[in-house]
Structures are given as C-alpha cells and as structure tokens.
Amino acid sequence: MMDINKIKKILPHRYPMLLVDRVTDIITGKSIKAYKNITANEEVFLGHFPNQPIYPGVMIVEGMAQAGGLLAFVSTWGDDLSMAENKVVYFMTIDRVKFRIPVTPGDKLEYEINVIKHKGTVWQLECKTLVEDKVVAEAEIKAMVADAKKE
C-alpha cells in the first residue's frame, strides 16, 4: 500500500528515528495498519540492554505516532506529496499508555491506529501495537498537523 520510499516523502524522520517500514492498509479518515521490523542491529540495543535486548516502549509509542501522522497526512492531502514539505505532525498528549509484552529483536511490530475524533488540524487516535497477534502496547494519542518551520 505504501512502501518506505513514499513514507520518507511524507514523514520528516530518518534513520534511526524513522519507525514505520510499510503501510499495509489505510482507510482515509478512519484507520491505518503499518509495521516495523525489529532487527538485532538496531542502534538502541547497544544500550537497552546489551545482554538482554528490549526495544524501548518510548520507541513503540513514537512508531504508533508516526503511523498516525501518515494517516492524518493522507486523510487530509491524499497523494499530494508536495504538502509534506510544509507540514509536520506534533504530539499534543499521550494517554492511557500500557506496555504488555517486551519486544525483542526479530519481532515485527504491527501498528493499528483508529481515529477517535478529528477536528480541524487535531487528531485523537486509538493506537495498538501487536506482535504475532498479541497486543504489546497501546495508547491514546492526540496530535496536531502544523506548518513546518522554514530555516
């Protein structure tokens, strides 16, 4: 549905902070499904934790937010990728965060994001991350699409 090249045209994030590899399903204004493959050579595992690698929860939440940003962008501008240069999505709130199961190298994070509410530039999203059909994390995220600052 959306490969890494198109994702990179929409999101400003780059390695090591680009946390969505592919979008597999999107229903404009409603939901998105995307994933990230967690590999043993992720830089974060150098320090978290060297002898027992656990993917940080904050990175899972960021991945859910990035998937939500893709949903907001596509829902607002469709395939007009020229708008991506002028817009950025900012966190406003992160609520009801729960981590259920540790994520380790070799896992495939599957993000499932659903719109709770959308008004103007503000998006309220219900987010889940699954590994092998088991919920590993969930959160409610509120985000705002804003103008990007020009240098």
Automatic annotation (TrEMBL):
<dbReference type="InterPro" id="IPR013114">
    <property type="entry name" value="FabA_FabZ"/>
</dbReference>
<keyword id="KW-0441">Lipid A biosynthesis</keyword>
<feature type="active site">
    <location>
        <position position="48"/>
    </location>
</feature>
<keyword id="KW-0443">Lipid metabolism</keyword>
<comment type="similarity">
    <text>Belongs to the thioester dehydratase family. FabZ subfamily.</text>
</comment>
<dbReference type="GO" id="GO:0005737">
    <property type="term" value="C:cytoplasm"/>
</dbReference>
<dbReference type="InterPro" id="IPR010084">
    <property type="entry name" value="FabZ"/>
</dbReference>
<keyword id="KW-0456">Lyase</keyword>
<protein>
    <recommendedName>
        <fullName>3-hydroxyacyl-[acyl-carrier-protein] dehydratase FabZ</fullName>
        <ecNumber>4.2.1.59</ecNumber>
    </recommendedName>
</protein>
<dbReference type="GO" id="GO:0009245">
    <property type="term" value="P:lipid A biosynthetic process"/>
</dbReference>
<keyword id="KW-0963">Cytoplasm</keyword>
<dbReference type="InterPro" id="IPR029069">
    <property type="entry name" value="HotDog_dom_sf"/>
</dbReference>
<dbReference type="Pfam" id="PF07977">
    <property type="entry name" value="FabA"/>
</dbReference>
<dbReference type="GO" id="GO:0019171">
    <property type="term" value="F:(3R)-hydroxyacyl-[acyl-carrier-protein] dehydratase activity"/>
</dbReference>
<dbReference type="GO" id="GO:0016020">
    <property type="term" value="C:membrane"/>
</dbReference>
<dbReference type="GO" id="GO:0006633">
    <property type="term" value="P:fatty acid biosynthetic process"/>
</dbReference>
<keyword id="KW-0444">Lipid biosynthesis</keyword>
<comment type="function">
    <text>Involved in unsaturated fatty acids biosynthesis. Catalyzes the dehydration of short chain beta-hydroxyacyl-ACPs and long chain saturated and unsaturated beta-hydroxyacyl-ACPs.</text>
</comment>
